[in-house]
Amino acid sequence: MNQTAFTLVVPCAGSGKRMQSDIAKQYLTINNKRIIEHTLTRLLSHPQIEKVIVVLSADDDIFHSLDIAADQRVFTVIGGAERSDSVFAGINQVADNDWVLVHDAARPCVSHADISNLIGHCTSTGVGAILATPVKDTMKRSNDNLEILHTTERNNLWHAQTPQMYLCGQLKSAMQQASEQGVAITDESSAIESAGIESHIVSGREDNIKITRPGDLNLAAFILSEQEGTCV
């Protein structure tokens, strides 16, 4: 497939309850700029990203007030109750035979190099893939009472990141099948896995963090400051 320009879907309908904030985490600010603005600016500045589809909640009253919303490459649709519902709403705007990338709104530090490596891998192999980093810490399995059951071997364990990139029709079919079978979908890769479709890992940078808890804001601010003025 000779595809050189790509569409990226950004689910932006979550509430971010773990951030202990009155507003959704993607609308918190870092250096006087909303997280979603940092994320979209980074994505749209990549030379191979042609369009970004932002998936909003039905009651979102912030996004369209942002300057980035006026960018002609930014499109919006309404999502659903779960992340998977929002992703599905977004990818439904993409042709089945095109590749599509899905990226978390709260990952503003993703590098251009990682995006390029992911695109290059998928288009050269014809197999969808995700960005991920290898697990370095000792992994423990506990029960619900936080009693340690055993140590899990960390070899070949990875921290999944985004973007995740798949052929759009393939991803739609996998997500529909998972929904019909009641399979929990935590990311796009989990839908592909449940459908028994081959999927790869592309090793990414550790600074592609997801802002999830209050302490992550300072870390993201530091990373963005370190990245400023560099070719990321």
- Helix percent band: 25-40%
Q: Give the CA-CA distance, first to last residue.
A: 27 Å
Large-scale geometry: globular
Secondary structure tally: strands: 11
Rg, alpha carbons: 18 Å
Strand content: 15-25%
CATH hierarchy, class:
Alpha Beta
CATH architecture annotation: Alpha-Beta Complex
Largest sheet: 7 strands, mixed
Tell me, rounded to a whole number, the average pLDDT.
93
Quote the CATH topology: Spore Coat Polysaccharide Biosynthesis Protein SpsA, Chain A
The largest sheet has its strands arranged as 5-4-1-6-10-7-11
Q: Could you state the CATH homologous superfamily?
A: Spore Coat Polysaccharide Biosynthesis Protein SpsA, Chain A
Category by helix and strand content: alpha/beta
Count of the domains = 1
Q: In DSSP terms, counting alpha (H) and pi (I) runs of 4 or more, how many helices?
A: 6
**SSE order, one letter for each helix or strand:** EEEHEEHEHEEEEHHEH
Query: Could you name the ranges where pLDDT drops below 50 across 5 or more consecutive residues?
Result: none
